[in-house]
Design goal:
The protein contains five helices and nine strands, in the order H-E-E-E-E-E-H-E-H-E-E-H-E-H. By secondary structure, the chain is α/β, with parallel strands linked by helices. The radius of gyration is 25 Å and the shape is elongated.
Amino acid sequence: MKKSTLSIIFMSLIAFLALSLSVWQISRAIEKKDLIEKSKSRSKKALKLNIDNLSKASINTEYWDQQRILISGYWVPNSTVYLDNRSFQSIPGVHVISAFKLDDNKSVVWINRGWAPKPPGKIFNISEFIEGKLYLPINNDDISNIEGIAYTDLMKRIELTSDSSILQNGALWQNLDWNKLQSKLKEDSELYFEKIWPFILWQTTNLSDDLKRSLPIVKVDVNKHIGYAIQWILLSIVSLFFAWRIGRN
């Protein structure tokens, strides 16, 4: 086979690959645009959460992502954990996570109640965090109504150690894990539930608990994917041009 023929085949393969990558980038842009539209539509009206009202669509975890939700029920005692090394306005602290049993008496949802300050590491006595004694929800016989936004992403941080005593020191955790959260609920032998909802509800209801509440920022850059797609298309055109020139020569 002639060298020129091999060059034509090689340039054609590059053109095909570049064109395929441009199509993939365009599909990613469409996907993220749909995500933005879904986020806007889901945040307009709050859904009342109840295990008895489950539909086939709601079984899918993605159905709940960024959905505004209203729940009624009771806080689960001794369930609070603290996610360490979470900052708010450049101040180090923790996210306070507590379990909430719905009034259907069958299901539990974990709630990110807000942010609280805490110096990093062991700069001061952190025993109250480890023992789960700080920023506890008010437990009483009155039913509580909480509204928030559901996020299926646990937003885990990079773990720089494999030491389990550091990753989970009592109620002070480095990251959330569904298995660990379920095990924590099962420690209470009197707590009955059939289902744990597959998302963390970021509370937006303001309560007098000294916690700062803000929603996570989900970055969705559609223009970035469109820019990449244009670059791949240009590379495909250039490759086809060189293949054509080689063929002429």
